[in-house]
Amino acid sequence: MFKSKIKMLQLAVTLSACAFLLVPTILSVMAGLTVNYFKGISSGLTLKWVYQVWELYADSIFLSMWLAIACLFCTLIIGLPAAYGLARHPGWLSRLLEEFISLPLAVPGLALALALLQLYGSMKGFRASWTFILVGHVLYTLPFMVRSILAVLAAMDLKTLEEGAASLGASPWQRFRDIVVPNAMPGILAGALTVVTLSIGEFNLTWMLHTPYLKTLPVGLADSYASMRLEIASAYTLVFFILIVPLLMAMQWASARAQRITQ
Amino acid sequence: MTNRTFVMVCLTPLFIFSLAFLALPLIRLFLVSGESDAGWAIYLDIVRKPRYLNTLVLTVLVSLATTFAALAVSTTAGMFLVRNRFRGRGTLLAVPLAFPGVVIGFLIILLGGRQGLVNQLTPGHVVFAYSAIGLFLGYLYFSIPRVLLTVMAAAEKLDPALEEAARTMGATPFRIVMDIIIPGLMPSLIASGAIAFATAMGAFGTAFTLATNIDVIPMVIYTEFTLSANIAMASALSIVLGIITWILLLIARSLSGSTVAGGG
Predict the structure, then answer these.
(1) Burial code of B201-238, b = ≥16 C-beta within 10 A, e = fewer?
(2) Which of A55, A182, B213, B237 is the most buried (most CB within 10 A)?
């Protein structure tokens, strides 16, 4: 009896947690599809608000996608060789470097944005261009890429593999291309999906770094929450969900897969 | 090209990027914080001036409340999901992981705002989205999935034989929770608690949508910078906040070995 009472309590807490997380999400989806949210669902369903969002904010949606792709490109170019370097050259210096580039995980985005603004804010051409936002996104997502690849590389016997290839006459570049990259693939994939998901949803840095002509999706969201009617804000949130939820699912699948390899 | 030079070449882009866009900006941030009339005493002003001190206290209190609530809810739900083979259901609860703070702020408005669910369902005027309660709920929404995933991973590694042994020796369920389950989960509880606290302290997006009437540290940094143009104070507060969250996450990582994405 006592045990089942505890079970009931556990069940109640679990269900309330689910309700707390899911009810507002469902409310938001519904609000974006109803004709008049205040009157309720009886006023009918419509895609009018979604179309209106598209007219108002299509630019910001495309900017976010473009930024995510550019950010992925940059984090790959910087992160893949760096992860290899860190894996091949373990030591206190590498630990320190890894710890240092991981700072953006811990330090709030607001603080990082302030730091960037104070150093580069006076360079007008750079400040006003989309590359300024890109720098913020790369700064924030790079540690995820590096760590994701590093975890996979650290789990395999990189040294023996490379020695084997070297004894057959492979140059460092050939070994990197033909051994390291294919073996690191699960880590690269997991890192890439994480980078894209985080970049599309990034707000804290972007809000400080954006200009009125360069609004990303989350910046547009904040804008619509403050100044648009509830239905449009909800429809815009719905568009965001449609974009981000499949990415999140793919990211979790890829991360779980990469983790299985490292164990 | 020798091996060693190749490895160095590989590390060069990372080195240049983090020097130009992380190290130098942070040094500049620190230098700017001492450039006001107050000089370096600006760091004393944070605890001396009531406006900043009150904000700091409120931020810490809301973050602490979030941490303990998230730990209590997630541990209970996590143990239940793991023990009753609901593993697949856990992924449903992981969906909010991808929501940025602004979106969570909006979801709380849908719950407790003027047109919100609670206000419509209950008689009278119940609006809590823009108060400390709304902020607390927003942070809680952000933290529950993160803590839950960490706790569930740890709960799966608990040995059920220990609990059975305790039960055969006549331990009450309360004693089993206190003496076996909680100690077994402790490293992950401390780690995820530290993450929850640190993200709540630094959460900007949620506060940006909800904190119209109340001041928390990230909002004060924002208003000092944009409205008051008190750049030195904004920088000093950023540095204090950054050091607090960094130390907390360092503790979390040394205990659990992994970091769940932060940034609310």
Answers:
(1) bbbbbbbbbbbeebbbbbbbbbebbeeeebbbbbbbbb
(2) B237
